[in-house]
Amino acid sequence: QVKPYIFRSCFIDPLQGEVMATFASKTLKAKTAAVYMDSSSDYSKSLAQVFKEKFEAAGGKVVLEEAFFQKDQDFKATLTKIKGANADVIFIPAYYEEVGKIVKQARELGINSPMLGTDGWDDAKVVDIAGAGALNNTFFSTHYSEQDSEVQGFVEAFKAEYNKAPNVFAALGYDAGKMLIDAIKRAGSDDPEKIRQALEETKDLQVGTGMISIDKNHDPIKSAVIIEMKNGIKTMKEKIMPQG
User: Fold this and answer.
1) Please, which residues bridge with residue 141 across strands?
2) Is the four-CA dihedral 111, 114, 120, 122 of positive or negative sign?
3) Angular region, 124: left φ>0, alpha ψ -120 to 50, beta rest
4) What does the alpha-carbon distance between residue 182 and residue 199 come to, in Å, rounded to a whole number?
5) β-strand partners of 36
6) Under 8 Å CB-to-CB from 110, ≥6 apart: which residues?
């Protein structure tokens, strides 16, 4: 149920599953995938489900689905099964602590396949846990990249004000603020109902993370960014606009 006065500046989790399925099938040309999810996390389970649906709808096949629990330490038994499946890609929709250990142990077992993730990977600590080299040939979706030419105005303004680069939360917070200010200006009023209506009509607004419009569910229509890890450095690979 849509709450009349609640709007998001960040895309909802299922869209990341769609984006990574599109990236796997179209960019990486993957035909098969293994999915390794955190069964104790609704975030992980929903992303795994959407990825499978979208990847198979695009003509791919999920050949193996495995699960772990948050705070697990040793993943090698399951990773050995995943290695045996010989999938073109491995999708791991989880958070950086477990992801770092999974990637490290997978590479130790000789798994060299591309590994894919979502914004739960987006933390500098993943490099400390996995090691820079192990993270080569891994990709994850997130909300924006400082390397995107479309967001340079925001990045430079933030650095000038705070003397540091903005993280994802700073960017999304800025997006929410700009959406509200834009709606107030277009409404020409401080009346809550008029501001709500203006927010619903938000279309092609330039915000911190790029261009944004609002859909009927008060969720954003915006691109997701695919990050490739190269020797421990986040590199912008491409931008994908979800279709769902």
Assistant:
1) 226
2) positive
3) alpha
4) 8
5) 66
6) 83
239 φ, ψ to 5°? -115, 140
The whole-number average pLDDT for the span 221-239 is: 95
- Average pLDDT, integer, range 146-169: 92
**Contacting residues for 177 by C-beta, under 8 A, at least 6 apart:** none
φ, ψ of residue 94 in degrees (nearest 5): -150, -175
Predicted confidence (pLDDT) at residue 244 exceeds the cutoff of 60: no
> Which residue, 36, 38, 28, is CA-closest to 137?
28
Work out whether strand 210-214 and strand 220-221 pair parallel, antiparallel, or are unpaired.
Answer: antiparallel
Render 26-75 in DSSP notation, one character per residue: IIS--SEEEEEEETT-HHHHHHHHHHHHHHHHTT-EEEEEEEE-TT----
CA geometry: angle 82, 84, 87, nearest 5 deg = 65
Cβ proximity of 140 and 117 under 8 Å: yes
Does residue 203 have a pLDDT over 90?
yes
Residue in the structure block whose two tokens are 């038994």? 77
What are the E-state strand segments in 69-184? Answer: 89-91, 115-117, 138-142
Place of tokens 């490739």: 228
Task: State both tokens at 14.
Answer: 């299922």
Distance, first Cα to last Cα, the chain: 18
Q: Are the C-beta atoms of residues 136 and 232 closer than 8 Å to each other?
A: no
pLDDT of 151 strictly over 70? yes
Cβ contacts of 56 within 8 Å, gap of 6 or more: 62
Distance (Å, whole) CA 59 – CA 38 = 25
Starting at the edge strand found earlier in the chain, the sheet holding 138-142 runs 61-68, 32-38, 89-91, 115-117, 138-142, 224-230, 233-240
